[in-house]
Amino acid sequence: FSDVQQELEEFQEGSRDLETELEAQLTQAEAKNKELAAANSQLKVECERLQAKLNQCQNECSGLRDEVQELQLVRDDLQQYVRKLEQKNDDFERATR
C-alpha cells in the first residue's frame, strides 16, 4: 500500500509541477498575445494614416498632371502665336524694303 501511496504522491507532485509550468507558459503566451495585439493596433493606425497620405498624394499628383496639360496647351498656343508674329514681322520687313 505504501508503494501505491508513494506513487500517487509522486504523480500528484509531477502533476503540480506540470500545472505550474503550463500556467507559466499560459501567462507568457497571454502577455505575448497582448503585446502583439497592441503592436497590431498601432500598425493598423499607421496603415490608415499612410493610406490617407497616399490618397492625398494621388489627388495632388492628378491635379498636377492636369495643370501640366493645361500649361502645355498654353505653351503650344503661345508658340503658334510667336510663329505668326514672326511671320508677320518678316512680311512687314520685306514690304518696307
TrEMBL record:
GO CC terms in record: centrosome; kinesin complex; kinetochore
An individual GO BP term: establishment of mitotic spindle orientation
GO MF, one example: microtubule binding
Keyword RNA-binding appears in the UniProt entry: no
Domain of life (superkingdom): Eukaryota
Keywords noted in UniProt: Coiled coil
Any coiled-coil regions, as ranges: 1-95
Family as reported in the entry's similarity comment: Belongs to the nudE family.
Name of the protein: Uncharacterized protein
